[in-house]
Amino acid sequence: MSRDKMLLAIREALPKEATAIPDYQPSATSFDVVQKFIDTLVGIGGAVIKVSSLSVVNDYVIKHFSGQRVVSLVQGVDSYATTLEADPHLLENVALTVVPGAFGVAENGAVWITDGSMGDRALPFIANNLAMIISAQDIVPTLHEAYQRIGADGYNFGTFIAGPSKTADIEQSLVLGAHGPKSNTIFLLA
Amino acid sequence: MDYFLSGSNFGYLLKRTIFDRNSVMKVGLFIPCYVDQFYPKVAIATLELLERLGIDVYYPVNQTCCGQPMANAGFEHLSDKNNKLFIHNFTGFDYIVSPSGSCSLHIKDHLHTRGDDSAAAAIRSRVMELTEFLTDVVQVRSLTSRFHFKVGLHQSCHGQRGLAIAQMSELVAKPFSKSESLLKMVGGLELISLDRKDECCGFGGTFCISEEAVSVKMGKDRIADHIQHDADFITGSDMSCLMHLDGILRRQKSKVRVVHIAEILNAQ
Amino acid sequence: MMGNQPTQDHATRAEVFNRDEARVDWHDKTLWFIRQKRDRAAWTIPDWEALRDQASAIKDNVLSNLHDYLISFEAQAQRNGVVVHWAADAEEHNEIVHQILKRHQVSKIVKSKSMLTEECRLNEYLHDHGVEVVDTDLGERIVQLAGEPPSHIVLPCIHWKKEEIGALFHKHLGTPEGNADPTFLTAAARTHLRQSFMSSKVAITGVNFGVAETGEIVVCTNEGNADLGVQLADVHIACMGIEKLIPERKHLSVFLRLLARSATGQPITTYSSHFRKPRPGQEMHIVLVDNGRSERMKHHSFKNALKCIRCGACMNTCPVYRRSGGHSYNYAIAGPIGSILAPSLDMKQYADLPFASTLCGSCSNVCPVKINIHEQLYQWRQVIVQAGYVSKQKEVGIAAMTAVLSRPWLYRYAGNVGRWFLKTFPTLASNKINPWAKQREMPAPPSQSFRRWYQDNRKKK
Q: Which positions fall inside the LUD domain (chain A) (predicted)?
């Protein structure tokens, strides 16, 4: 069994004394978190729409995605779905999904979401367009605060999503919509 | 041991810097082998410059090479005799100063002896590249030299990244450059800026031979950056890099020439 | 650069790459552009250097506690419902993966980018066993269609021009001839690969980070190909080098701040997915691979290379890599980091790589985990020479040089020393013609050496 062999080899290779991890206090940030979040996300191909209520989101969805399949996981936004198909492959025709985000990160424009709020884990990746809703109060400056906030959360699957799926593999030309959503819109509730 | 007092006749007549506690300081002049052989004028300029600043400089005439070409080629294990010779030549100086960042760095990082390492350790802590010596020890604040040309500075890698003669473009840190500060004291000199301020020139010791194609391409690109910004001269604190660039410039029949920083700082 | 003949060493392959100078210029500028983006991203974090220090310190801690962390990681992962496998080498890794595929009776799978599977040559192994692997990262798919290995760990087809990709897609995907528009080609690849995503029962991913505390793994992509593959598959196999562990979840903040900024200058990759438990009904496997890593840990000079988080920053900044191309290294991981990783797998085969550097040190400066890459290149040279993996000619040349330079009288009397030097130095190369003078003028020997001048002008005083 390689397990024991490997562990033995690793044990033998360890130095006599283990090194400790020094305390690390990231320097305080001075930027405006909401503005920084917006600037950063727009800079990486995302879009931010400030809204005062969910009904504005609802209007937006109806206006831009009428006649197309929308899966909303936010009550009050069309088309709110309480259950989804068991087979994630059937989500391939979803034009837009609206997902509640947990919080945003100003320094990189990412929004954290976990499996509990994404209906099906495939949904945020297979839908053609992804929208997430977060409150303007739920934006932290950097990833340090982000992980403090996540803490020991017992999610099964969690992900930071920052902007639309993208690639620059062909001569460094940025193309949005590589395999996942072609657009990423954050509705900022304030 | 051949140590000869050489500074006393020159220094007094010239403008002194704030550095004036040199009466007891002894500086050993460490001239890289290829400078000794091909570029004696660089060594002369270094010697005269230090003398001008009122420093007592000694040149141990039995010196040969720091051992870097062999060590960088993977033959550090053969360098024992060479190291002993170096230690023999340079023990007893307050500072060992060299017009080469690369050779200074090699001594600083790799001069060792088997057994008692104390003599080697003393030298490792005292070896300095010329511009860092002028900046940190002599604390030169002004120079009388003049050089009426547009000059591009090739910041050689070992001096820069190894000895921290200048801030490195990769690091998030305050900019500074000891060589640039000195060049800015030279009358008439116009320092040009470069697109890539600290890209390697491709010399790399035996690399320039064993990886000829890439080495030359790197050199050509480095030169193009200087030419694009109208340099008359390319200067730097490593003659090895400049020798490589000069070889390409002359093959290209370019008007641009190379000049060691010691020659500029010593130009009257 | 397609269809290069397999050649001897890095220098020879680099020389071939340099025959098309315009292409070298293009390659160099493309990568320098990424280096500049990296610089700008680094400068957005005022305490960037402290962050690098911290990342390096965390990895030091990992390398000195790896045994316990692995046991903790395994226990947590198992508690999460993940099957953990242990592979001592590449062969065992490939067998483990193949056994899982056999059990599920699949003949086609999707795989997102994993340098470990490149290192283990998993694709070839599975191909030989009747399984088709579809690489789903766009760049990887491009080189896969072309029958090449990636030339860069983050940008697999950075050496390809869009016109060539257009022609490749025309041949393999049936896109219109002559269309080289990146947006169009990416859309074509999306459609092409979507079919594979929709039909694959098994998805393989690499692992960017494994968390000892929680048993979760983190996979970072921009395209979303890892997530799409995994979330649509019945089985997720994550292949992971043992050095990918970090102690705690909170340490991800340090590494995720550094990774994308160092790699491409982005503030973070589009997706940073934390896989802790499989989806209900899904199987999740983690294959822990040693393949020389524990052996390397014993080497004081070289163990720091295990800190690598595969960002590729050292390649983008390397003036040699930019002008020789990834394939000149002939190893799955090219550039400076590849040159210190490869020799520990096969010192003889990769003896040339540590010499493919000027030791300029830029690689060490951009490295987000502060691996002393250029110092390790120097150390590898010593090890390789002592092991006897250099040409006899070079050995003789260096020995002669050492003999002269360690004897002042010989140095002085080696004829006209300048000429001696000129004759000796160039013969260190294997080529008969003088490689210095091929594209450079020789320095003109002066009338006298400095030593002679000194004795004439100073000694007399």
A: 98-188
